[in-house]
Amino acid sequence: MLSYSEKIFDLFGQSACLEAIQKFRQQYPIPLSRGTTQAAILIPLVPSEHNSELHLVLTKRTENLVHHANQICFPGGVFEDTLDQNTWQTAIRETEEELGIAQSHWRQVGSLEQWATTSGFLVTVHIGILSQPPQFRLNSQEVAKVLTIPCQHLQAREFIYAPHPQSQSHAVWQLHYEGELVWGFTGLMLQLLSLCLAQV
Q1: Mind listing the pLDDT tens digit for each residue in 69-91?
Q2: Would you state the torsion angle of the CA atoms of residues 43, 110, 24, 119, taken in this order, to the nearest 10 degrees?
Q3: What is the CATH code for 4-154?
Q4: Taking the domains of the chain in order of start, what are their residue ranges?
Q5: What pTM was computed for the model?
């Protein structure tokens, strides 16, 4: 029998997951964005130190940052054509800068495709996995702390679709976890990921 980790490797190319992504796009469209800046994030999947259970990693940004200060997010950033051959390299390069995990340690699992954000970016959402529990070396200028959520428990979490917590202009996916509010694009991708993981 395949392990949960082995099932994850095959999940994101399966028709059921692709159909879930397309249905989700239609059901919860993001307001139109005028920006075309290429960017990428990594949804990091890592094994626990105590057992073989996979966790996903989120970061809380520091309060001094210009964009998305104090918010919970996935590691990532803007595509740099002088540094990156593709958006996968953007995602793992930024993850190394933020979490201190070497780019070579990541194995690419799949993608949740590309999404336009209200802040003017076209974000490619990559999924990567580590074979060993991570040793974080946080960039204190960008990352205040790390949160981890067991993948197998994600679909059991209570997501809500509620007004934007800052502008109230539109509804966004939100999740309360360990005293933190995850919302916006991160909440959207967590909800979509939970739908895909439900196919395992």
Answers
A1: 678 999 999 999 999 999 999 99
A2: 50
A3: 3.90.79.10
A4: 4-154
A5: 0.89
